[in-house]
What does this fold into?
Amino acid sequence: MSFTAVRRARRPKVHVSQVRSNPASIRWPITQVLGAFNEYIRDSRIRTGSFTLAWFSNLAAYGIIFWYFGVAVEKSPIEVPGFVIAIIVGQFIIFNLFGLVQWIQIYGRQWAVIGAIGRESELSYCVLSLVAKTLLGWLIYANVIVS
It folds into this structure.
């Protein structure tokens, strides 16, 4: 018996219904790769297409997350705490603000009021990351203290 035959014989039998993919784990590499692609390509049609594709994949993943959450809330006999809903909606808003910063970086550098976000996009990402992590951390920490 060859080594490959032994490896195949030891594989556990897994039914397709047992395998579930996490939409957030699919969203991350798609948006990261398309975001990096957008930083190096100068053709505006390709940049717009890849940016739109990244937004579509992000919103599709969050659509699945919200749908699963809604089904879980509906079938649960226990009422969902308000802070859980705040965390999920807060993550959706805050994570989509990163895409908004990239959109301003691509298309809005010449705008007077918010053009500074596009011109100083690295600083904008750092501030947004700090605010997002702090806000979500305090949401979780405050509800641990209250409980």
